[in-house]
Write a structure and sequence with these properties.
single chain; alpha/beta; D-Maltodextrin-Binding Protein, domain 2; 2 domains; five-stranded mixed β-sheet; three-stranded parallel β-sheet; 12 helices; 13 strands; 38% helix; globular
Length: 295
């Protein structure tokens, strides 16, 4: 039997809705065997909130960036925006709660989720083996490599050109780890916040800045006089949500959500809403977006 295009679309949406429903109803209590109650903990036995507690409170607490446009930032009206925020809003909607955003910096992401200060981290979080020892990563929703942006009048196109120069990085990022491990000869100028790092590049305190290639490309497109001379450095990595270590049921819920959203091509819609105007023809969404957790 041949189905009409509309009927196929209905089947796809229905399947996605059923998967999301399984996520929400299947995580009713006792997430991952952890203690219940309270989203914060100051001790080593940090607690995490169950889905029942999240729903009862009427809010889910999600850690995002506030200064990393176009992925997580606060606009001129004081509202959180960006690719990660678009996803966070959908998670809250499917849980039937409001979202409370907690601004985080790169070095605090592991701490915030590990100690229960947030329920989920969606702060452009690259999956690494080291981080996976401290938090549990869900399925990925984006692909990424490192990039290097520098002024057009002193463009860096090869890592060897950084010898004797100051490379700006943000603490707690994969760029910091990569250059410390693979290029100890390069002097790193470290900052806590992305805004401070970009300001250092703008006023000439550093010669170049390295972070995710998706992010430096977006910044360079908005800042004439700067170019991403190295657009693919290191290993190809993925971006994924993270939850507290051992929170197995919450992890399974997020995975089910990501799989369900893949049925409707949600992350391509996210790209169109938050990234397409920034990148224009400079990037291919299929090269960046991951649907259904399948790289």
């Amino acid at each position: 039997m041949k189905y009409s295009r509309m009927f196929k679309r209905i089947l796809s949406i229905t399947a996605a809705a059923l998967l999301a429903l399984l996520c929400l109803t299947g995580c009713s209590s006792g997430d991952g065997g952890g203690e219940s109650g309270g989203s914060e903990s100051g001790g080593s036995e940090a607690t995490f909130r169950t889905v029942d507690e999240i729903k009862a409170s009427g809010k889910v607490v999600i850690g995002v960036f506030s200064d990393k446009a176009p992925f997580g930032y606060v606009d001129e009206n004081g509202k959180y925006q960006g690719y990660d925020v678009y996803f966070a809003e959908r998670i809250a909607k499917d849980l039937g709660v409001e979202v409370e955003y907690v601004s985080t910096d790169p070095a605090s992401r592991v701490e915030y989720v590990a100690t229960g200060k947030v329920d989920i981290i969606l702060a452009n979080f690259t999956v690494t083996e080291e981080r996976a020892q401290q938090v549990d990563f869900a399925l990925p929703y984006m692909k990424v490599m490192l990039g290097v942006v520098s002024p057009d009048n002193a463009l860096i196109t090869d890592v060897s050109q950084l010898n004797g120069k100051n490379l700006i990085v943000v603490k707690g990022t994969t760029a910091e780890t990569y250059f410390e491990k693979n290029h100890p000869e390069i002097t790193l100028q470290k900052y806590d916040e992305y805004a401070d790092a970009y300001n250092a590049l703008l006023d000439g305190r550093g010669d170049a800045f390295s972070t995710d290639n998706t992010e430096v490309l977006a910044w360079a497109l908005s800042n004439p006089g700067f170019t991403v001379g190295i657009d693919a450095l290191g290993n190809a990595d993925t971006i994924a949500p993270a939850v507290q270590k051992g929170n197995t049921t919450r992890l399974e819920c997020i995975n089910a959500e990501i799989e369900a959203l893949g049925e409707e091509q949600f992350f391509h819609a996210d790209y169109e809403a938050t990234l397409a105007d920034v990148y224009g023809d400079a990037a291919d969404p299929d090269a960046l977006v991951v649907e259904g957790g399948k790289v």
